[in-house]
Automatic annotation (TrEMBL):
The keyword Transmembrane helix applies. Pfam families: CsbD (PF05532), DUF883_C (PF19029). The keyword Cytoplasm does not apply. Residues 1-35 are annotated as: Disordered. Residues 57-82 form the DUF883 domain. InterPro entries: CsbD, DUF883_C, YjbJ_sf. SUPFAM superfamilies: Hypothetical protein YjbJ (SSF69047). It comes from the Bacteria. Belongs to the UPF0337 (CsbD) family. Keywords: Membrane, Transmembrane, Transmembrane helix. This is CsbD family protein. The lineage of its organism: Bacteria, Pseudomonadati, Pseudomonadota, Gammaproteobacteria, Enterobacterales. The chain crosses the membrane at residues 62-80.
Amino acid sequence: MMGKVQDKAEELAGSAQEAFGDVTDSPEHSAKGAARKYASQASYAVRDAADTIKTQVSDKPYAGVAIAAAVGVVFGYLLGRK
């Protein structure tokens, strides 16, 4: 949970830095702020997806095993081709 809060704080800081760069006409600050903002948004999305997967697997463990096996078969097929 703290990771999600930290990601949201980083997103806010990135937005502020981007706005500062826009106001002061500093492309360096604007680009760094945008990169910081989008990186934290991606991190938040990954954490949210991981939490969703954990919840789904704990609720339905057999479905999780079946999906993992299917993914393994697909990777095995793709990596085994020559």
